[in-house]
Amino acid sequence: xxxxxxxxxxxxxxxxxxxxxxxxxxxxxxxxxxxxxxxxxxxxxxxxxxxxxxxxxxxxxxxxxxxxxxxxxxxxxxxxxxxxxxxxxxxxxxxxxxxxxxxxxxxxxxxxxxxxxxxxxxxxxxxxxxxxxxxxxxxxxxxxxxxxxxxxxxxxxxxxxxxxxxxxxxxxxxxxxxxxxxxxxxxxxxxxxxxxxxxxxxxxxxxxxxxxxxxxxxxxxx
Length: 222
Ligand SMILES: [Zn+2]
Description:
By secondary structure, this protein is of the alpha+beta class. The chain has a single domain, classed as L-fuculose-1-phosphate Aldolase (3-Layer(aba) Sandwich). It has seven helices and seven strands; from the N terminus they run αβββαβααβαββαα. A seven-stranded mixed beta sheet has the order 3-2-1-4-7-6-5, with helices on both faces. α1 runs parallel beside α6 and α3 (103-110) crosses α6 (171-194). Residues 99, 101, 162-163 line the site of zinc ion (ZN).
């Protein structure tokens, strides 16, 4: 596929991921953003700063050279661009990143608490605990470095006193991860009002994760 076509497809997918954030209840006003990466052109596209999600169109997204961080656009990119860039530079297999301050997940972040694998849904989707990194400022590469330092095998992390970063092999996968972090966080907050939550045994986490990641849904050719 031609680079122009691939980048246009990426713009449409990233636009849809951004528009889905308020629809899924993951953001209020402009408190989140999604991006996507094309490894062949080494370009990423990201939401422009301060633009309403319902006004966003694919052509408004800002295209950024991942190696240099440079862009040509009349719109400024999200202020979270440095963190997205850091993740694409340091996690070479990922193709999408989402950042939110979604309420239930961010409640864990406010308390500095990780989300244990205490539900089969967490084993399925994440295969590991969703850690909470200590608070860092948003200057320079601090957030990116903290994510790399504290992440587990789960494609999401809580940032202390801040919010959530998630990623995946596409912008849609990163969006799903962001939505699932919020969903399981909500369930655990309810559970903690009833009793104690405990992690599943490691072998059970592996079994659920393997089934969901490798045998759930339809085959690609179906
Ligand atoms: Zn934030």
